[in-house]
Amino acid sequence: MKHGFLRVAAATPEIKVADTIYNCEQLIEEFDKAVEKKCKLIVLPELCVCGYTCNDLFLQDRLLEACMDALKNFTEHTKGTDCLAFVGLPMLVKGKLYNVAAAVCGGRVLAFIPKYCIPNYSEFYEARYFAEGNRRAFDVKFTDKSGESYDVPMGTDILLRCTTMPELTVAAEICEDVWMPDSPSIRHAMAGATVIVNLSASDETTGKSKYRKNLIKMQSAKLVCTYIYADAGEGESTQDLVFAGHNIIAENGTMLATSQRFKNQMVYADTDLGRIKSERRRIGTFATNKNEGYRIVDFDIKIEDLELKRFVDNAPFVPGNKEDRDRRCEEILSIQAMGLKKRLEHTNCKQAVIGISGGLDSTLALLVIARAFDALDIPRKNIQCITMPCFGTTDRTYSNACNLTKKLGATLTEIDIKESVMQHFKDIGHDPQVKDVTYENAQARERTQILMDVANQCGGMVIGTGDLSELALGWATYNGDHMSMYGVNGSVPKTLVRHLVRYFADTCGDEKLASVLYDVLDTPVSPELLPPEGGKISQKTEDIVGPYELHDFFLYYVLRFGYEPAKVYRLACHAFKGVYDGETILKWLKTFYRRFFSQQFKRSCLPDGPKVGSVAVSPRGDLRMPSDACSRLWLEELEKIQVN
């Protein structure tokens, strides 16, 4: 697929123990299903050609010969396709029997990967039959159904590298291998494998499925890879064990797909190998060049443009589950408050100064200040809340600012700045009827001057209110609301600010305070720098720069993963299907890139503030970007996009 996506599958076929003819038919059926779904990689279970539970039948020559015949038939069937398949079978090599995964693509066997860790405890007796797999690959002769013989590498340390999709490098391990502390997949990932497949026959016991699921999920996270786990299921002997067909596809700690247990199923998903590549590039300690001794086997797949079969969250900063969201909100509020607490302690500061507008950002900042003061046992009356009404202030926001301050027990001071701003216009010769950027920014800078001067008077600290989304877009007045002595919201995106305020309202236990907070949440986002119309806010930020839910989505994928514009656009169209059309998304994506590049100079001199998530724009940490970088390459790519 385009943009680094790959459709993959894990399947559990119906089998009959030791009936290789029937089993091969079932394997072919599962393979055909995968091809029909446009999958480019399918993983089938351990020893699925004959069944994991053959036990002493593994010592029968007839069974081993039949398994090789079945592999030949399966391989023959894959001719004319480009889906890489992994099938499990017993294989006799140089007088020893191995439990192997055969990698097959386009009518050829590409590799034999033997099981490395052979369990021989509890219900497992594999050492009775199988030898430990060799790491360093050697060639074995394979004769296909037509009679053609060719060499196939056999060993655990083999990488299957796709020549048409650079992000795709596949390695394999078998069942027990992943349960061991020194799993082969560790060295495979360090050697460059982005996809790990596991052919498994893991019997089901009480509680094991949860452990298995967490194991695969965490292995994919630890190795920054896609992990595909195919499990044996119904059809295996139940003489002593039951197998549930628990198939799992995980990507860097995210569960993409999992099957219903006790029902033989195929699960498939579109994994994002571009995400894997980006994460490894970002994590400087993740070295992927330790491939000495590995055999590299090349293969090809056709890159197709398919509709994504993958959930893409349109609010990547906000957990969808309420319990997780509440936990995230509590954690972020704690990080913000602890960051401010340390700064106040270090400076021996007992006063905080904040411009309170009745909007979301200043509300959140005030709530954080109150937490920090409580932690330091400083009375909340030492929080100096300054409301500074001017030309655009509405009664609604003014009332909310005043009521919020009073409910929290802070000190409220009102300083009307209309006269001082008008005097400033007179001083610089600006016509107040010209409501341009000078008209707007003069108000923002006057407010910041007042806050700084009040802080000097009381020996306090000006707490900034601007959030991550505003900083990304440069939606702040330089040396106005852009500046403070400590910015508690600087790494909190706008979509999350709303949930933090709501969480505080839901949990504060004060109905009157909660009522004020809920009204703040219902108020349109606005800088209130232009006169109201009919007493209501006339200047709505999202009408000017675009919806914050879109910009936060763009921000996440541009900064977190470094995706190219076309991929960000594709993901946004998928995530916001039915909400925004492609033309609207493209319009605001262009706005995002233009503003993101042109406004870097504001981010280059940000005040200190705590990092709370995986995306931040501090020039001292996550974003070290030149202020005069050009956006041409990104915007030119957007111009080439054809809106459907």
How would you explain this protein's 3D organization?
The chain is of the alpha/beta class. The protein has helices at 20-36, 61-77, 176-179, 184-191, 208-222, 273-282, 322-347, 360-376, 395-408, 418-428, 437-458, 468-473, 494-507, 511-522, 541-545, 548-560, 565-575, 582-598, 600-603, 632-639, and strands spanning 5-11, 41-43, 84-93, 96-105, 108-114, 138-143, 149-154, 158-162, 169-174, 195-200, 226-231, 248-251, 254-258, 266-272, 295-299, 352-355, 383-387, 411-414, 461-464, 486-487. The strands form four sheets. Strands 13-12-11-10-9-8-15 form a seven-stranded mixed sheet. Strands 5-4-3-2-1-14 form a six-stranded mixed sheet. Strands 18-17-16-19-20 form a five-stranded parallel sheet, sandwiched between helices. Helix 2 links the parallel strand 2 (41-43) and strand 3 (84-93). It is elongated, with a radius of gyration of 31 Å. It starts with a strand and ends in a 5-residue tail after the last helix.
